[in-house]
Amino acid sequence: MHEWSLAESVIETALSIVAKEQIKKVFSVKIKLGELQQIDVEVFELALKELSKGTLLEDAKMEILLEEAVLKCRVCGYEWSFKSFLEELDEEDSESIHFVPELVHVFAKCPKCGSKDFEIIKGRGVYIEGMEVEK
User: Fold this and answer.
1) 60 with 93: CB under 8 angstroms?
2) What does the DSSP assignment read for 52-103?
3) Are 104 and 97 contacting, i.e. CB atoms less than 8 angstroms apart?
4) What span, in angstroms and rounded, lies between the C-alpha atoms of 77 and 80?
5) Which value, to the nearest 10 degrees, does the dihedral of the CA atoms of residues 61, 63, 64, 66 take?
6) What is the pLDDT of residues 68-103, one digit of tens each?
7) 123 with 115: CB under 8 angstroms?
8) pTM score, two decimals?
9) Which of 35, 110, 120, 132 could form a disulfide with 28 if both were Cys (CB 3.0 to 4.6 A apart)?
10) Measured distance CA(122)–CA(71) in Å, rounded
11) Residue 51, SS3 per DSSP
12) What is the spatial distance between Cα 62 and Cα 58, in angstroms, rounded to a whole number?
């Protein structure tokens, strides 16, 4: 599943930071999930829990923060939410964007002027926003 590979990347990145910074204990990890990824949060949380077993992350609280995806037209400057656009998609197209978020450029256009020239200004990707640790 897509969520497992993303969780694996988060765990590997966090453990890399732990090793590099010579951290002794990790209390919490803040993880930001961009809405555009359309991640099943329950599956992602389960994957984080399972993949952190036997590591310094095992007892850490995994705090997941969802970030709304916002798109901005480069032609007229209009901003709109991915959520409003998602309602127009069929299941197959939505699934395509789930696995390759940049495919949103194939399916979306500015609701104001109709341009397909837009950027994703937030809500893209999965990343560690911070960690509470003891050195």
Assistant:
1) no
2) HTTSTTTTSEEEEEEE--EEEETTT--EEEHHHHHTTS-HHHHHHHHH-GGG
3) yes
4) 10
5) 170
6) 999 999 999 999 999 888 888 888 888 888 788 888
7) no
8) 0.85
9) 132
10) 7
11) helix
12) 10
Sequence letter at residue 18: V
Identify whether the C-beta of residue 107 lies closer than 8 Å to the C-beta of residue 89. Answer: yes
Whether the CB-CB separation of 80 and 103 falls below 8 Å is answered with no
- Asked if 28 contacts 127 with a C-beta cutoff of 8 angstroms, the reply is no
Q: Which of 57, 66, 67 minimizes the C-alpha distance to 28?
A: 57
SS3 43: helix
User: Computed from CA positions of residues 104, 107, 112, 115, in that sequence, does the dihedral angle turn out positive or negative?
Assistant: positive
pLDDT of 6-58, one tens digit each? 999 999 999 999 999 999 999 999 999 999 888 999 999 999 999 999 999 99
Give the CATH fold of the 2-68+123-134 domain: hypothetical protein PF0899 fold (3.30.2320)
What are phi and psi for residue 27, nearest 5 degrees?
A: -90, -40
Delimit the domains of the chain by residue range: 2-68+123-134, 70-121
